[in-house]
From TrEMBL:
<feature type="binding site">
    <location>
        <position position="134"/>
    </location>
    <ligand>
        <name>Mn(2+)</name>
    </ligand>
</feature>
<dbReference type="InterPro" id="IPR011650">
    <property type="entry name" value="Peptidase_M20_dimer"/>
</dbReference>
<protein>
    <submittedName>
        <fullName>Amidohydrolase</fullName>
    </submittedName>
</protein>
<keyword id="KW-0479">Metal-binding</keyword>
<dbReference type="Pfam" id="PF07687">
    <property type="entry name" value="M20_dimer"/>
</dbReference>
<dbReference type="InterPro" id="IPR017439">
    <property type="entry name" value="Amidohydrolase"/>
</dbReference>
<keyword id="KW-0464">Manganese</keyword>
<feature type="binding site">
    <location>
        <position position="132"/>
    </location>
    <ligand>
        <name>Mn(2+)</name>
    </ligand>
</feature>
<feature type="binding site">
    <location>
        <position position="168"/>
    </location>
    <ligand>
        <name>Mn(2+)</name>
    </ligand>
</feature>
<dbReference type="GO" id="GO:0019877">
    <property type="term" value="P:diaminopimelate biosynthetic process"/>
</dbReference>
<dbReference type="GO" id="GO:0050118">
    <property type="term" value="F:N-acetyldiaminopimelate deacetylase activity"/>
</dbReference>
<feature type="binding site">
    <location>
        <position position="391"/>
    </location>
    <ligand>
        <name>Mn(2+)</name>
    </ligand>
</feature>
<dbReference type="Pfam" id="PF01546">
    <property type="entry name" value="Peptidase_M20"/>
</dbReference>
<dbReference type="InterPro" id="IPR002933">
    <property type="entry name" value="Peptidase_M20"/>
</dbReference>
<feature type="domain" description="Peptidase M20 dimerisation">
    <location>
        <begin position="214"/>
        <end position="309"/>
    </location>
</feature>
<feature type="binding site">
    <location>
        <position position="192"/>
    </location>
    <ligand>
        <name>Mn(2+)</name>
    </ligand>
</feature>
<dbReference type="GO" id="GO:0046872">
    <property type="term" value="F:metal ion binding"/>
</dbReference>
Length: 420
């Protein structure tokens, strides 16, 4: 990973003066915005859209940006790039170029999940749900924008706001980068509402925080036969079932327990009728690894397992492996700025020691280009029913954390850009 931009940025990150100057402004602005942030979250929650289809979501966001008076560029990929221009002395050079520019990113897509939460603002789009929390991310980002508009006098440079589509299918960040989202950016901040972190706390530790995320697909060609004559065919469903179990050998027996790996079969399709032995089936799933070394070894190991199983049953097997996003690692200096922002806003006790996750995030694509930090904004609170994991049809959040997430994002930007 890159070090944070330069010695000047490091000196600023260590400066308590900047945080003291903006903390009260940020808290006051967040207090007045909290009701709107919750309403935004509920609005987006009611109208989820799948990855690559977020046109109405983009429309809603543009409407809110218009009401806030924020300039923005609407992208063909359903994303948005907005700009908040600082007004501190020296914010721009003689050519009108900001002396610093930092970015804040929120993802906007939803999942193919049928909601079962019972909330009055449940999804109105059948089979689609904000089951990962991106509705909260949009709301927190609009809250951060509203806060930053109140602190422009302290910003020595620009804040670029990225509303990103298609995170769930791992292509949104790359499309934003292609659209110029990182042009001239010195550092970037992202955050995820997180069900494994206690509400009211935020994790922003340096180093690796999320896993490499890759994908596989297995086509199984058997021999179809009558269900009453199994000896006449090769049952692709039986072969696939054996593979579901066999793939877990990679986790339990083929890899050191000190080198985390997760193999998940998310799809298993086979058969056409209840009395016909399936002649074809397919499985698809995901592999999560922590180290780059194991990531490079996994495809061959998985292919070896499935090919041996196919051979044992007399089936033909085609194994396809697709690389997704690399693991996500926080820049130490940018992470320290985030930690100080959490302390500024919520106190020392709000800094969570969460160990990280084998979930994946295409925010890592931004971090391949510029230094940055990705924070986990805790929402776990069983007292309000916020105890289900992301991607569950029962997933919900503790809405009291939304304004906190907005404050931390805004304060991070303020610390990075505050006039000295």
């Amino acid at each position: 990973m890159h070090p944070c931009a330069d010695a000047e940025a490091l000196a600023f990150a260590q400066s308590e003066l900047a945080g003291t100057r903006t903390a009260a402004l940020v808290r006051d602005a967040a207090a007045s915005a909290e009701g709107a942030i919750i309403e935004w979250r509920r609005l987006f929650h009611q109208h989820p859209e799948l990855s690559g289809r977020e046109s109405h979501t983009q429309e809603m966001l543009c409407g809110e940006l218009d009401r806030l008076g924020v300039e923005y560029r609407r992208l063909d990929n359903n994303g948005i790039i907005a700009t908040i221009r600082g007004e501190a002395p020296g914010a721009y050079d003689a050519a009108g170029v900001p002396v610093r520019r930092v970015a804040l990113r929120a993802d906007i897509d939803a999942l193919p999940v049928t909601e079962d939460t019972g909330v009055p603002f449940a999804s109105e789009n059948d089979g689609v749900m904000h089951a990962c929390g991106h509705d909260a991310h949009m709301a927190m980002m609009l809250g951060a924008i509203r806060i930053l508009l109140e602190t422009k006098s302290q910003l020595k440079g620009e804040v670029r706001i990225l509303f990103q589509p298609a995170e769930e299918i791992s292509i949104g960040a790359l499309s934003m980068i292609d659209a110029g989202a990182l042009d001239g950016v010195d550092a970037i901040y992202g955050a995820h509402i997180w069900s494994e972190v206690d509400a009211g706390t935020v994790s922003c530790a340096p180093g690796q925080r999320m896993a490499n995320t890759d994908w596989f697909h297995i086509d199984i060609e058997g021999v179809s036969a009558h269900g009453s004559m199994p000896h006449k065919g090769v049952d692709a469903v039986v072969v696939g079932a054996e593979m579901v179990n066999g793939l877990q050998v990679l986790v339990s027996r083929d890899v050191s327990p000190f080198d985390p790996v997760v193999v998940t079969v998310g799809e298993f399709h086979g058969g056409e009728a209840r009395n016909i032995m399936a002649g074809h089936a397919y499985l698809s799933g995901t592999v999560r690894t922590w180290t780059e070394k194991l990531r490079r070894e996994v495809p061959d190991r998985l292919e070896r397992i499935v090919s041996k199983i196919g051979h044992a049953f007399g089936a033909k097997v085609k194994f396809t492996f697709e690389e997704g996003n690399a693991g996500l690692s926080n820049d130490p200096v940018c992470a320290e700025v985030a930690r100080r922002a959490v302390v500024d806003m919520l106190g020392e006790s709000a800094v969570s020691d969460y160990r990280g996750t084998l979930s994946g995030e295409d925010f890592s694509e931004y971090l391949n280009i510029v230094p940055g930090v990705f924070c986990f904004v805790g929402t776990r609170n069983p007292e309000v029913g916020a105890s289900h994991p992301q991607h569950s049809c029962h997933f919900t959040i503790d809405e009291s954390v939304l304004a906190k997430g907005s404050m931390v994002a805004a304060q991070w930007a303020c610390r990075m850009l505050a006039a000295e």
